[in-house]
Design goal:
The protein has 488 residues and is mostly beta strands. It contains 2 helices and 33 strands. Strand 17 (224-232) and strand 18 form a beta hairpin. The longest helix has 7 residues, at 392-398.
Length: 488
């Protein structure tokens, strides 16, 4: 341990190493700090004359048995949070409370093809920490989760995503009692203290779990464990091997159901400790996958709204993307019914040089590997002017897609005028709706996806000033624009 302390002890005291942070005594003093084994050690200044100790650092020095570790595929990952490269392995969290770290692949994998990753994992040397998760995530997903959420291994609300948990902390959560809906009950999400499970949508709740939690025994044992995760794209099967045995397996179309329909997936590891502590590390030995040539970045729009120029009743989308697609991919335009469905040939725009009213999203498409890049959000909103009107401004306010708005014409906004909060009744419509709010001169104020609940969408523009606004509503490729008056 010599040379690992960068400060010096005050006169009259000497540096010692101990195996605990509090309750220091001669019993937990390290006798030979020049040659220590696996464990966590804390430096402290000791005054032998007065038999008293100085303060110890919050985080000690963790020593783990690296042995003959070979981790050649660590270089495939970018590290963030508190994750650092230590010797030959990636330390995701130090032995400290409220620590979180991530390691994400530099390139996305095409899950339209098979995928295999082999790695060793170290879960600590005591009952602490939350564990490590391996994730596939949509390129649009957040790269770090809410780290203060207990039990989620640092991936809370990273979504769309599919997680393979290596859970080292038994957790519970509160939910509505299914028998007595006026009360809440505590639900045990973890049957075993150390387990593995499949989770979706960045949640640890039971209703986001695929299959059952599987017992791993004690894995916080100062040892490296051999892990292998395989994805079979043909059979849609994901398998988890742990120390040479199959511990979990599921048949599930994770691309369609969990990744927004995009086979182009970033992969990597997250870990956190929350109020506990443990060093948690991985050593990535190999990754076998096909790269998607479309990349992970969304094309950059030069504008978010376009209107037709009369007498034309359509808009040309060409030239409205300010970036270029990576080699091996080409630009396409799509409509979007929901984030869960994502991009597919079914919602590709056949003729982007002449489109009607609606919201359109540019993506880069790799035709060889059949995978897409991310897409910008908001997309490009097209509003069609009524070329038969002499009042262009009035036409903008009342503009609708005349080919597909029979049902949406019945949509109503109430109260209108409104002080800020209002509802949109969509008269029998279902699914997700895109609402683009613009002011009278065409500037986009807000663009969001809403889930239609009982034919109604609740919108809040309380932070906007009084005036007239346009509500461009798109659902199932149908579009209508309604006007709203805000009166404060």
């Amino acid at each position: 341990m010599s040379g690992l302390v960068s400060s010096t002890c005050p006169s009259g005291s000497a540096l010692e190493w101990h195996t605990v942070r509090t309750g220091l005594s001669a019993a937990n003093k390290v006798a030979g700090p020049t040659s220590v084994g696996v464990g966590t050690y804390y430096p402290v200044c000791f005054d032998a004359t007065n038999v008293c100790y100085g303060p110890t650092p919050t985080t000690g020095v963790s020593v783990i048995q690296a042995g003959s570790l070979s981790c050649p595929s660590n270089s495939l990952f970018n590290l963030s949070g508190l994750a650092v490269l230590k010797d030959s392995y990636i330390q995701l969290t130090p032995d400290a409370t409220s620590a979180a770290g991530q390691a994400w692949s530099k390139q996305a994998a095409n899950l339209g093809r098979d995928f295999t990753i082999k790695f060793k994992a170290f879960f600590g040397n005591k009952d602490g920490g939350n564990g490590i998760a391996f994730l596939f995530r949509n390129p649009r997903s957040a790269s770090s989760g809410q780290n203060n959420v207990n039990g989620l291994m640092g991936y809370a609300l990273i979504r769309p995503s599919f997680a393979v948990e290596f859970d080292t902390q038994r957790n519970t959560y509160m939910d509505i009692d299914p028998i007595d809906e006026t009360s809440v009950i505590e639900i045990d999400t973890d049957v075993y203290p150390n387990s593995t499970a499949f989770q979706t949508s960045g949640y640890h709740y039971l209703y986001n779990r695929v299959g059952e939690s599987k017992n791993l025994g004690n894995i916080e044992d100062n040892a490296w464990h051999n892990c292998e995760i395989k994805w079979n794209a043909t059979t849609k099967t994901i398998s988890v091997m742990f120390d040479g045995r199959l511990v979990n397996q599921a048949i599930r179309d994770i691309v369609k159901l969990d990744l927004g329909g995009n086979a182009n997936a970033v992969f990597g590891f997250t870990a956190n400790t929350d109020g506990l502590r443990n060093q948690q590390s991985v050593c990535v030995e190999s990754v076998v996958y096909d790269v998607c040539n479309s990349g992970t970045s969304a094309p950059i729009l030069s504008t978010f709204m376009k209107t037709n120029v009369c007498p034309s009743t359509t808009v040309n989308l060409s030239g409205l993307v300010a970036s270029s697609c990576p080699t091996g991919s080409s630009l396409e335009w799509h409509t979007l019914q929901s984030y869960e469905i994502g991009m597919s040939p079914a919602n590709k725009v056949a003729n982007p040089t002449a489109v009607g009213a609606g919201t359109y999203y540019p993506v880069c498409f790799d035709a060889i590997n059949s995978c897409y890049s991310s897409f910008p959000d908001p997309g490009l909103t097209v509003i069609i002017n009524n070329c038969g009107s002499n009042n262009r401004q009035a036409a903008n306010i009342e503009a609708i897609n005349t080919t597909e708005t029979v049902e949406l014409d019945k949509a109503t906004v109430f109260p209108n005028p409104s002080s800020g909060k209002f509802s949109i009744n969509l008269k029998g419509q279902k699914g997700d709706a895109q609402i683009v709010v613009t002011n009278i001169i065409g500037n986009i104020i807000q663009s969001s996806m809403y889930k239609v609940d009982n034919n109604t969408i609740e919108v809040d523009l309380s932070n906007q000033s009084s005036g007239m606004y346009l509500l461009n509503i798109t659902i199932d490729n149908k579009n209508v624009t309604k006007k709203l008056i805000l009166e404060k």
